[in-house]
Specification:
single chain; 385 residues; mainly beta; five-stranded antiparallel β-sheet; 1 helix; binds beta-D-glucopyranose
Length: 385
């Protein structure tokens, strides 16, 4: 018999939970129960251009939700979930084969790092030493580098002892993509019967180094490949965001969202005000939000609902920031099952520390030292009503 957890939301509750102790207006309550019906199956997904076998792991819960993960990039590749009428759709972006992932440039579903998001000028200084990285986004480094960032390497994967998850591990050698220290990383996905997919990240290093790992899933709650996310309604629990310069590096300011198109403290359609950002840096929503919860406990960060399907995504995290990216750079690329992914047809909610933190001392710290353990949890839960 294996352990299972479940997630429920209770308004105005101050119940304590198993993972974290937090009391919120909308409170997360978790309970442990026993089950034996979770399933993980393992198959070969294909081989990389270098001939390395990529494994596929299929998770199924008691309600028929199916999640698929592949070991290249410890990637979330499929998530099949019923709508309010019971119709099942795959709601995340991905490709049918490894060649798709190898030629793609949008980071569909991957584990992103070592340092997700941007590092200004492709360099940073630690303990008086300057480290130079590859620039792959104008003058900056985006999502950990060019050839051996976490999305591009093949991780070791195995079902978890609990029977409803997969544990991926990868050891990134000293100076891989220019980052100091051998970094040992673990990414664990767990699916429960309430439709919540929990991801736990852990990392340790033998030299001081910046770490900021996240998942880069693109969602369309009407089904991946649907033409737009403009009708999706989003709420982000953040009073402030980090404004950016022309190359999407935060200015260092924490600006109020009030009175701007970035104000999602109540639900708004994504399409309602996005045109005001068309000619601004990022060409739409591509910004880090300063989450109201900053104490490292697992707290609700954002919710997105799609009116026709009735599906709702809730995102909870221990991280201080969330990058809301509205798919502004999608351009009709071909994805799974003959679907195409049009401009602004998917969104990402990337839980993380703020962009360019390693060069911005006023932002929460991203530097990991030997003897410390980096930890980050995100829960993506999809329900329908
Ligand atoms: C970034 C975008 C980028 C996308 C794909 C997001 O995390 O914020 O600017 O285009 O990833 O790389």
């Amino acid at each position: 018999m294996s352990a299972k957890w479940s997630v429920t939301f209770e308004k105005n509750s101050i119940k304590r939970n198993f993972w974290q102790r937090s009391a919120l207006g909308t409170c997360l309550c978790l309970a442990l129960a026993a089950t034996a019906n979770a399933e993980v199956t393992v198959s070969d997904f294909g081989k990389t251009a270098d001939g390395v076998t990529v494994k596929q792991f299929t998770l199924k819960n008691a309600k028929g939700v199916i999640v698929k993960l592949i070991s290249r990039g410890a990637t979330l590749s499929e998530w099949h979930v019923p709508d309010k009428t019971g119709k099942v759709d795959d709601v995340v972006f991905g490709y049918d084969n490894i060649a798709g992932y190898e030629s793609g440039t949008s980071y569909f579903g991957c584990t992103t790092g070592r340092v997700a998001n941007r590092i200004a000028g492709a360099k940073f200084t630690l303990d008086g030493k300057e480290y130079k990285l590859a620039a792959n986004d104008g003058p900056n480094t985006l999502h950990g580098g060019v050839k051996r960032s976490l999305d591009k390497v093949v991780w070791e994967g195995k079902p978890t002892a609990s029977g409803n998850g997969v544990e991926f591990t990868y050891t990134s050698p000293d100076l891989e993509e220019g980052f100091p220290g051998e970094l040992k990383i673990k990414t664990t996905y767990t699916l429960n019967d309430e439709g919540a997919l929990r991801i736990d990240y852990e990392a340790t290093t033998n030299k001081t180094t910046p770490v900021n790992i996240c998942n880069h899933a693109y969602f369309n709650l009407a089904g991946a490949g649907s033409p737009t996310i403009n009708d999706h309604e989003i709420k982000i629990l953040a009073d402030r965001y980090t404004p950016v310069d022309d190359v999407l590096i935060p200015t260092g300011q924490l600006a109020p969202v009030a009175g701007t198109p970035f104000d999602f403290r109540d639900f708004h359609k994504i399409g309602e005000r996005v045109a005001q950002l068309n000619d601004k840096p990022g060409k739409g929503y591509d910004h880090n939000y300063v989450l109201n919860s900053q104490n490292g406990s697992l707290a609700l960060a954002a919710q997105v609902r799609e009116p026709r399907s009735g599906r709702m995504l809730s995102v909870l995290t221990t991280e201080p920031g969330i990058q809301f990216y509205g798919g502004n750079f999608l351009n009709g690329a071909n994805g799974k099952g003959g679907k195409t992914y049009a401009h602004r047809s998917g969104f990402c909610l990337e839980t993380q520390h703020y962009p360019n933190s390693v060069n911005t001392p006023s932002f929460p710290n991203t530097v990991l030292k030997p003897g410390e353990t980096y930890k980050h949890t995100v829960v993506y839960q999809i329900t329908a009503q």
